[in-house]
């Protein structure tokens, strides 16, 4: 596993591990296996471990904290604040007020069982609070030694520039994959001009690009993906036809569709780090092996032809959730 730099000084593995699905959204989890996945990822050289207070809610940070307790020095720990939920799993909007930033950080430190967070993201931008105020409060956390580096998630280019003027931003985390290439229009240009790293979440299209789903019914009832436009009847079948082209290219390369998708993201630049999520050891091993897949210029040209911007049928979030991205 090679290393990549996010921003001015944060060094992480070229692939990270997203932990959200271990606790919620994608069906029931198994804490014992999830901890085994985190341990194995670390053994394989993965250092960037990603969670958030909202996952669970609250339980995913506690799970990650238990997993890394005896190997904290081997982990670059990333978590997030800003999306507000109740213990009953209700949603209460976005909060970027300075007092909430401090409160959320202290709560995350407690659940994680650590004395500092390596990379602290604002999960979604609060339109009611100037980004300068939110990042100013985050910068105070750096000064207090509670946080090492700052990040933003799903922020717009203008917001990123304003945030960077307050305090260096190490990373922007936003969705990026073969079927979600929106960031290529403006966001990637902005973060590269500013020297900010890019962390790609859902690089496997919420599992769709693995090839495990062939009909809508393959997605279990109650699974969060059931409400996503790209998993809806009509869109789903169109996306399967796209997946068939990806699968054919992967077969030609002697890799799995997942490995092809991850290799493509990593090939988009040494400043990009994908964080595929999994709660199964066999999928972790498969994902990590993608770091050894090399795509030729001809491969990349063919993939661009089969997966141009806008190739996916359906939006990447339901309409209400899309209002919170790109602010």
Description:
The chain is α/β, with parallel strands linked by helices. The protein is globular. Strand 10, helix 6 and strand 11 form a beta-alpha-beta unit. The chain contains 11 helices and 12 strands. The two termini are 34 Å apart. An 8-stranded parallel β-sheet has the order 3-4-5-8-9-10-11-12. The mean pLDDT is 97. Helix 1 crosses helix 2, helix 5 packs parallel to helix 6 and helix 7 crosses helix 8.
Kindly state the percentage of residues in helix. Answer: 25-40%
- What does the oligomeric state look like here? single chain
Name the overall outline: globular
| CA(first)-CA(last) distance | 34 Å
Helical stretch count?
11
Percent of sequence in beta strands: 15-25%
Q: Taking Cα atoms only, what radius of gyration do you get, to the nearest Å?
A: 19 Å
What's the structural blueprint in terms of helices and strands?
Elements: E1 3-6, E2 10-13, E3 17-18, H1 31-43, E4 48-50, H2 59-68, E5 76-81, E6 83-85, E7 91-94, H3 98-112, E8 117-122, H4 131-143, E9 147-153, H5 157-166, E10 169-175, H6 187-194, E11 197-201, H7 235-253, H8 257-267, E12 272-274, H9 281-289, H10 297-306, H11 319-322
Parallel strand pairs: 3-4, 4-5, 5-8, 8-9, 9-10, 10-11, 11-12
Antiparallel strand pairs: 1-2, 6-7
Helix pairs in contact: 1-2, 1-9, 3-4, 4-5, 5-6, 7-8
